[in-house]
Design goal:
Elements: E1 2-10, H1 14-23, E2 29-32, H2 41-44, E3 49-50, H3 59-69, H4 76-96, E4 121-122, H5 128-141, E5 146-149, E6 152-157, H6 160-163, E7 178-183, E8 188-199, H7 220-228, E9 232-233, E10 238-245, H8 257-261, E11 265-267, H9 287-301, E12 306-309, H10 315-321, H11 323-331, E13 341-350, E14 353-355, E15 367-369, E16 374-375, H12 388-406, H13 428-448, H14 455-477, H15 483-504, H16 522-525, E17 530-531
Parallel strand pairs: 1-2, 1-8, 2-5, 8-15, 14-16
Antiparallel strand pairs: 3-4, 6-7, 7-8, 9-14, 9-17, 10-13, 11-12, 12-13
Length: 536
C-alpha cells in the first residue's frame, strides 16, 4: 500500500501535532504514530512551559538561566529564539483551549523550578502536558487535511540509499521522500511518500532500565535519521530526572520539579536536608547537580532512595497545586501532605539528537526535525526545567514555515521508489532469544552509562553493544519486520551513539560526569560532539 501526501509527520507529541496543524494550511498531511495518538512524552509532562510573563522577569534573565544550566554548550542564537518567541507560542496554545492555571487577578499562575531565578513556569496544575496534548488532538480532529495513522511504526526513511542501492550519491545530494512504515495491526509495510518529512518522535529514555518516558520512547527518530546519514549531536547528555517515585509498582512515576519549586526539600532517611552541601540553590539546583547529589548520598549511606518532603506546606494548597501527584502517591499508601516521598533519579530527557538549524532543517533535503528528537543547541550540556515544551513549540513553528516553503519547488518522481522487500521467515523460537537483548541493553546502559561514568565502564559497554547490534541487525535482515524488532534495532543504535559520544568527551560537563576526567576542559571540549554514519 502507498500513501502520497505533501507532508509526512512521524510522531504525535506537542511538536508533531503543532506541525500538523500549521502544515494543514498548506497541503495534505499524513501523521503516523506508533501507538495511540495521545501516547507521548508530552502527555507525561507535569511541570509546564517556561516563558516570560512576569513583569519582574526578562528575556535576558531567562536566557541567562538557560545558558547557566547548559554549562557553556548552549547555542545562544537558539536560546534567544525560544525565549523571545515563548510568550507568542504559549498564547497560541491558550487560544486553542489550553486552560493554564491563573491567579485570582486573572494572570498566569507562574511557578518556579530548579535552575530558574524567576517565576516563569506556565502550567495547568501538575498535568500541563496532558492538557496541551488534548487541546492539540482536538484541533487536529477538526482539520480535514490531516490524516492520523495510529499503530504505525516508521522503519526507515526513504532516500537515495533505497533508490540507488548499493551506490547512493554523496551525503550532500541526499533527499528524503518519506518513509517505510509498518502497520502493526495489519502486519504490512506501507510506503508513505511525501515532499517533506518531519521527524517528531520524541526521546529515547527506554534505552535505560529506569525511565520516566512512556514505553514508546525507544529513540526511533534518532536511529532512522542516523541510518539515513544525518549527523547526530551530544548524545552523551542524557538528563536523569532527580525525583521519581521509588516504589516497586510505581514504574518511575515522575515527581515534578515544580514540587521543589513549591517548597519541598530533599532529605535523607534521618530527615536531614543535604542539598546545601552541593549547591548554593540547595533543592532548587539544576537537575544535573541534584541527580548527581542524590546518587552520591545513596552511595555514601547505602540507602536505596532519598526523600522529598513537602509535608510542612499547607495540605489544601498541596492538593490543589499537585492533584495528580497527590492521588498517584496515595495509590501507593503515601500521603505527601503528611510524610516524605521516597524518590530516586531516572532517565528523563535527551539533550542531544538529530542536528538541525534554526529552521528545523537537517542535512538531508526535505527532512526536518523538531522536539526532543532534534538537536537545536538550546539545551547545551543540561536542559533547564520546562524549556522542553517551549523548544518543541517554537521549532515546530519554524520547521512548519520552512517545510511549507520547501514543497513549493519540489516535484519528486515517486515512481522510482522501490516497494518494501518483505522476503524472509519469522522464527518464534529465535525471537525469544533475540528479545532478551532489549533487557540487556537497558541494564547495560543503567549500570555503565548512567549518572556517573568511567572509561572502563564505557569501554565495556561499547564492546557489548557492538555485539548486540550485530546480532540484532543480522536478525532484522533475514526476518519479516515486527514492531518489536524495529524498537530493538533502534534501541541498539541509540545506545551505541550515547556510549561513543560519552567516550569522546574526556571531561565532566553538565549531565556527563566521568570519574576519569572530573573537571571541565573548556580548552578542548567547549564544543558539540558530532557523530555521523561514517564514524560509527
Amino acid at each position: 500500500m502507498t500513501s502520497e501526501t505533501d507532508f509526512l509527520i512521524i510522531g504525535s507529541g506537542i511538536a508533531g501535532l503543532s506541525c500538523a496543524l500549521k502544515l494543514s494550511q498548506f497541503g495534505s498531511v499524513a501523521l503516523v504514530t506508533k501507538k495511540h495518538k495521545a501516547e507521548s512524552n508530552t502527555n507525561y509532562a507535569q511541570g509546564g512551559i517556561a516563558s516570560v510573563f512576569d513583569p519582574g522577569d526578562s528575556y535576558v534573565q531567562h536566557t541567562q538561566d538557560t545558558l547557566t544550566a547548559g554549562a557553556g554548550l548552549c547555542h545562544q542564537d537558539a536560546v534567544r529564539l525560544i525565549v523571545e518567541e515563548g510568550p507568542t507560542r504559549v498564547k497560541e496554545l491558550f487560544e486553542l483551549g489550553v486552560r493554564f492555571t491563573k491567579t485570582k487577578e486573572g494572570r498566569f499562575d507562574l511557578g518556579i523550578e530548579g535552575g530558574h531565578r524567576a517565576h516563569r513556569i506556565v502550567h495547568v496544575k501538575d498535568h500541563t502536558g496532558k492538557d496541551v496534548e488534548t487541546a492539540l488532538l482536538e484541533a487536529v480532529k477538526q482539520e480535514p487535511n490531516i490524516h492520523v495513522h495510529e499503530h504505525h511504526a516508521a522503519i526507515d526513511l526513504i532516500t537515495e540509499h533505497q533508490v540507488f542501492y548499493p551506490h547512493p550519491p554523496s551525503q550532500a545530494q541526499l533527499h528524503c521522500w518519506g518513509a517505510y512504515v509498518l502497520d502493526s495491526n495489519e502486519g504490512i509495510v506501507k510506503k508513505f511518500l511525501a515532499k517533506a518529512t518531519i521527524i517528531a518522535t520524541g526521546g529515547c529514555g527506554q534505552v535505560y532500565l529506569h525511565s520516566t518516558n512512556p514505553k514508546i520512547a525507544t529513540g526511533d527518530g534518532v536511529a532512522i535519521c542516523y541510518r539515513a546519514g544525518a549527523p547526530i549531536a551530544n548524545m552523551e547528555f542524557m538528563q536523569f530526572h532527580p525525583t521519581t517515585l521509588f516504589h516497586p509498582e510505581a514504574n518511575s512515576f515522575l515527581i515534578s520539579e515544580a514540587v521543589r519549586g513549591f517548597g519541598a526539600v530533599l532529605v535523607n532517611k534521618k530527615g536531614e536536608s543535604f542539598m546545601e552541601k552541593y549547591h548554593e540553590m540547595a533543592s532548587l539546583a539544576p537537575r544535573d547537580i541534584v541527580a548527581r547529589s542524590i546518587d552520591t548520598e545513596m552511595k555514601k549511606t547505602g540507602d536505596l532512595c532519598v526523600y522529598l518532603d513537602i509535608s510542612h506546606k499547607d495540605p489544601a494548597q498541596v492538593k490543589d497545586r499537585f492533584p495528580l501527584i497527590y492521588e498517584n502517591c496515595l495509590r501507593y499508601k503515601i500521603d505527601i501532605t503528611k510524610e516524605p516521598i521516597p524518590v530516586v533519579p531516572a532517565a528523563h530527557y535527551a539533550c542531544g539528537g538529530v542536528v538541525t538549524d534554526l529552521k528545523g532543517r537537517t542535512s538531508i533535503k526535505g527532512l526536518f526535525a523538531c522536539g526532543e528528537v532534534a538537536f537545536t543547541g538550546v539545551h547545551g550540556a543540561n536542559r533547564l526545567a520546562s524549556n522542553s515544551l517551549l523548544e518543541a513549540l517554537v521549532f515546530a513553528h519554524h520547521a512548519s514555515l520552512e517545510a511549507s516553503e520547501f514543497v513549493r519547488d519540489v516535484h519528486p518522481d515517486f515512481q522510482v521508489i522501490p516497494r518494501w522487500d518483505d522476503s524472509g521467515t519469522f522464527n518464534n523460537e529465535e525471537w525469544v532469544l533475540i528479545a532478551h537483548d532489549a533487557l540487556e541493553i537497558k541494564n547495560l546502559m543503567w549500570d555503565y552509562v548512567g549518572i556517573v561514568r568511567s572509561n572502563l565502564r564505557l569501554e565495556r559497554a561499547l564492546s557489548r553493544i557492538r555485539l548486540i547490534r550485530h546480532e540484532v541487525e543480522n536478525y532484522y535482515r533475514r526476518t519479516r519486520v515486527t514492531e518489536g524488532i524495529i524498537e530493538l534495532r533502534n534501541l541498539a543504535v541509540v545506545a551505541q551513539l550515547i556510549i561513543q559520544s560519552a567516550l569522546l568527551r574526556k571531561e565532566s560537563r553538565g549531565l556527563h560526569y566521568t570519574t576519569d576526567y572530573p573537571q571541565k576542559n573548556d580548552e578542548l571540549f567547549l564544543q558539540d560532539t558530532i557523530i555521523q554514519r561514517a564514524d560509527f
